[in-house]
Structure formats: C-alpha cells, structure tokens
C-alpha cells in the first residue's frame, strides 16, 4: 500500500514539473511558457514603448508619425524580426510598469542602466551613452552647480536627473514634470531657473532655443549607459535583443542615426 502511495506521489510530481506549474502560479517564460521572441516571430508584430515628446529620442511629428533616435532602433529591431512595429507612448514613470503588465514587448526610451532598475527590469547591453547637463536662460546668474542651491530646477519625473537632484542637490528646489516638453516650457516661461536633462536632450534644446539658453560649463553629471528594457525572466528574448544591439551598433545604419540625431559617431564604448 505504501509503495503505491509513493508511486502515485512521484507520478504527480512528474506531471506538475512537465506542465510548468509553480507554487506562485506564474505563467510565461519564467514558468516555462513561450518567450516574447516566439510570440513576435509568430504574430509578426513588435510592440515598443517609446517617448512621443522627448527629442531627439522620440517625438510624434505633425503628421502623427514617430521619429527620433530611439525610433530608428525600434524600426531596425522590427526589421530584423520580420515584424511590423507598433509604438506605444510612454513616460519616464510608466516605462517599467508597461513591461510588467505586458503592454509592450520592449522599452526603447532612453532607459539608463541604474542598478536599482536592473533589480526589476531586464536591461540589455547598451545601445547609447550619455550624461546629464544643466540648461539655464542665457542671462541667468547661475554659473556653477553650487549656484543651484535654492533655485527651482526642472526634471522629468522618474528620470536620472530627478534622482540626481534628490541625492546630490538636496538644497535645490526640484520641480518634476511628466514630460520633457513640460520642463522646457517651464524654463521658457520662467517658472523654473534651470533644467537638468541628458546630453542628447540638451543638444536638441540648444537647437530649438538657440541663443535664449546656455549650458553650464561643467563636467556632465552621472555619465551613464542606455539600454533597451525587457520583462524579467525571459532570457531567450534578452539574448536576442543583446545580439541585435551588438550587430546594429557596428552598422552604417547605427552611425547614420547617431550623426543625424546626436551629431556624433557611435562611441567606441558601446561597439
């Protein structure tokens, strides 16, 4: 009798393992389900979270089409998969939740490689590198980072600049906005004294604002690397994304995109 019970328990365990059941009830890649790579290849559709108002990374133009540095990457990734791309607008704060809830297959929206982010989202090898700069009105008396004390400094919520303001400039008055465009408008209208953004975004601000603004002559803050974001637990998908970026970054297309949007060649650091 006991041998029969043991045999039944062993048989049940085999069935549970084969079916990919877990004590938490999870499904998907982490529990033996299909990879996002399989889904994209089968459906011929890639859903990408991108910025719609953060030049030069991603904007929606007057024709209702997305364009920008990150948009080039998304199109190239979709082409490599033989898939059509569908863009979903995101913000700094909504990027990771979109992945976690399955609303997008991948985030290509200037996601900086922070250790705390890597604890909740899978980060690919870098596809770009940048730092953070401070922009002020041309006539401002702010000349150094020390001068930010007691001043209103704009940044986008959930961004690296927002973290820098909290940790390194606690005496500044951080004014956090949902979108880069809102931060720029706040600077234009005089609601804030300065704006902190990435080197790429600042390059675009200088192009659009001209002599009305200037950048503090100081070393870039928190030099960093930028990656795609994928949902945790899908190693097959992450492997593919890493392979794509490795090949893309040494291509002529990558260099053309870098020069068009950032005014430079692909840095050797990310090749």
From TrEMBL:
Q: Which SMART domains match?
A: PBPb (SM00062)
Q: Check the record and name the InterPro entries matching this protein.
A: Bact_solute-bind_prot3, Solute-binding_3/MltF_N
Which PROSITE patterns does the protein's record reference?
A: PROKAR_LIPOPROTEIN
Please list which residues make up the signal peptide: 1-24
Put simply, this protein is called Glutamate binding periplasmic protein
Name the Pfam families for this protein.
SBP_bac_3
Per the similarity annotation, which family is this?
Belongs to the bacterial solute-binding protein 3 family.
Q: Name one GO biological process term.
A: amino acid transport
Species whose genome carries this gene: Mycolicibacterium tokaiense
Answer yes or no on keyword Transport: yes
Organism phylogeny: Bacteria, Bacillati, Actinomycetota, Actinomycetes, Mycobacteriales
């Amino acid at each position: 009798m006991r041998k029969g019970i043991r045999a039944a328990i062993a048989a049940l365990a085999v069935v549970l393992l084969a079916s990919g059941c877990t004590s938490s009830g999870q499904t998907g890649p982490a529990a033996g389900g299909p990879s996002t790579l399989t889904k994209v290849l089968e459906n011929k559709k890639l859903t990408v979270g991108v910025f719609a108002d953060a030049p030069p990374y991603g904007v929606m133009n007057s024709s209702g089409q997305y364009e920008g540095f990150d948009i080039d990457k998304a199109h190239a990734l979709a082409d490599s998969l033989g898939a059509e791309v569908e863009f979903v607008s995101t913000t700094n704060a909504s990027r990771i939740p979109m992945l976690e809830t399955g609303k997008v297959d991948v985030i290509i929206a200037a996601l900086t490689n922070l250790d705390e982010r890597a604890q909740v989202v899978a980060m690919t090898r870098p596809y770009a590198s940048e730092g953070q700069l401070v922009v002020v009105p041309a006539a401002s008396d702010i000349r150094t980072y020390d001068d930010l004390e007691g001043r209103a400094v704009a940044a986008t919520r959930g961004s690296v600049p927002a973290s820098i303001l909290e940790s390194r400039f606690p005496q500044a008055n951080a004014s956090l906005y949902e979108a880069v465009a809102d931060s720029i408008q706040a600077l234009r209208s005089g609601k804030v004294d300065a704006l902190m953004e990435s080197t790429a975004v600042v390059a675009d601000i200088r192009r659009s604002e001209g002599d009305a603004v200037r950048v503090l002559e100081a070393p870039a803050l928190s030099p960093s690397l930028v990656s795609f974001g994928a949902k945790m637990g899908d190693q097959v998908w992450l492997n593919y994304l890493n392979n794509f970026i490795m090949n893309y970054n040494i291509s002529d297309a990558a260099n053309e995109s870098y020069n068009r949007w950032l005014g430079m060649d692909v840095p050797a650091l990310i090749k």
